[in-house]
């Protein structure tokens, strides 16, 4: 499966991030004539996206917008490559991320640092010409003939995160702003892996909770997750996110008060995520965590970084 329709005029593209299916998605949103691609996956996803867009008959001039929920490598690493295939497109990104796309030196270095243990995830970014970038500051609307996309600032996961509300489906493309929800099947049993996406370099629980309230106000019918897929269980998933991030904030406050060092904080956060957040039976933990090892470690590091940052403040 390269591309599939998940809601009216909304198509999911599996970008095979890190060579793994069902981990990271991009979405194609179709208006009557114009189309927008939401996120691109990393640079290595180029062939999956181009094949998917060909499959739905999109020519090189048919893509109007490439909207990036944020500039982390698994969402935006392929934007430069995609622009070569679709030269008529404009790249829409939060103003705080724009300059890094034009001159991706810092971004490459930061991605390498964050993912240094994962050499299978090469950190490639092609610079994007400045005239192709449309930086957004504050919420704004984008007409896609027949539907209106509203870009919403949702800091928390990153300071420059945005979500995209689609009026036609009353759905929200959440990027990583409501965490990660991936369904796995182990021994024919289904599990929902849910992690709050508290990744380095700058997770802010207070902002994340505020952004979740902002999204809740739409009473959305759909969440389109980058990791992974479309869900109509919006109320349950919002409640879960708020509860997990609220708990993360409380744990962080305790650890800061205790003056816990990095090692102690990591151990505590690790224990909490494994025991209380992942909700996986102990017997299956090894099988599943090997698949989500990267996400789990980044979640631990992100919260610990927030804790040590506050301690030093
Ligand atoms: Zn991210």
Q: Could you list some keywords that capture this structure?
A:
23% strand; seven-stranded mixed β-sheet; 39% helix; alpha/beta; binds zinc ion; six-stranded mixed β-sheet; 313 residues; globular; Metallo-beta-lactamase, Chain A
Notes on the structure:
- This protein is α/β, with parallel strands linked by helices and 313 residues long.
- It folds into two domains: 231 residues, Ribonuclease Z/Hydroxyacylglutathione hydrolase-like (Metallo-beta-lactamase, Chain A), CATH 3.60.15; 69 residues, no CATH class.
- Helices cover 39% and strands 23% of the residues.
- The chain contains nine helices and 15 strands.
- The strands form three sheets. Strands 1-2-3-4-5-6-7 form a seven-stranded mixed β-sheet. Strands 8-9-10-11-14-15 form a six-stranded mixed β-sheet, with no helix packed on it.
- Helix 7 crosses helix 9.
- The structure holds zinc ion.
- The site of zinc ion has 6 residues, from loops.
Q: In summary, what is this structure?
A:
With 313 residues, the protein is of the alpha/beta class.
Can you list the strand order of the major beta sheet? 1-2-3-4-5-6-7
- The number of strands is 15
Cα-atom Rg, whole angstroms? 19 Å
Order of helices and strands: EEEEHEHHEHHEEEEEEEHEEHHH
Overall 3D shape: globular
**CATH architectural category of the largest domain:** 4-Layer Sandwich
Share of residues in strands: 15-25%
Spans where pLDDT lies below 50 across 5 or more residues: none
CATH topology title of the largest domain = Metallo-beta-lactamase, Chain A
- Secondary-structure-based class equals alpha/beta
The CATH superfamily of the largest domain is known as: Ribonuclease Z/Hydroxyacylglutathione hydrolase-like
Terminal residue distance: 48 Å
Tally the structural domains.
2
Question: Helical proportion?
Answer: 25-40%
Mean pLDDT: 91
Hetero groups in this structure are: zinc ion
CATH class of the largest domain: Alpha Beta
């Amino acid at each position: 499966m390269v591309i599939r329709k998940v809601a009216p005029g909304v198509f999911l593209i599996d970008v095979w991030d890190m060579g793994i299916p069902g981990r990271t998605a991009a979405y194609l949103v179709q208006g009557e004539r114009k189309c927008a691609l939401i996120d691109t996956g990393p640079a290595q996803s180029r062939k999956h996206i181009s094949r998917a867009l060909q499959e739905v008959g999109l020519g090189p001039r048919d893509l109007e917008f490439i909207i990036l929920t944020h500039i982390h490598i698994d969402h935006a690493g392929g934007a430069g490559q995609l622009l070569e295939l679709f030269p008529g497109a404009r790249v829409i990104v939060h103003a705080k991320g724009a300059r890094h796309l034009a001159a991706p030196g810092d971004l490459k270095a930061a991605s390498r640092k964050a993912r240094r243990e994962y050499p299978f995830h090469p950190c490639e970014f092609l610079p994007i010409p400045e005239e192709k970038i449309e930086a957004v500051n504050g919420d704004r609307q984008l007409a896609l003939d027949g539907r209106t996309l509203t870009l919403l600032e949702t800091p928390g996961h990153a300071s420059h995160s945005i979500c995209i509300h689609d009026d036609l489906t009353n759905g929200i493309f959440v990027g990583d702003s409501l965490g990660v929800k991936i369904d796995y099947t182990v021994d024919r049993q289904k599990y929902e892996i849910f992690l709050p996406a508290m990744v380095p370099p700058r997770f802010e629980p207070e902002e994340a909770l505020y952004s979740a309230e902002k999204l809740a106000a739409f009473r959305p019918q759909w969440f389109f997750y980058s990791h992974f897929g479309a869900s109509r269980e919006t109320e349950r998933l919002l409640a879960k996110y708020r509860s997990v991030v609220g708990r993360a904030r409380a744990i962080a406050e305790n650890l800061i008060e205790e003056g816990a060092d990095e090692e102690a904080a990591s151990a505590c956060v690790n224990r909490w995520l494994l025991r209380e957040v992942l909700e996986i039976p102990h017997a299956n933990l090894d099988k599943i965590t090997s698949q989500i090892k990267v996400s789990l470690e980044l979640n631990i590091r992100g919260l610990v970084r927030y804790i040590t940052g506050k301690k030093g403040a």
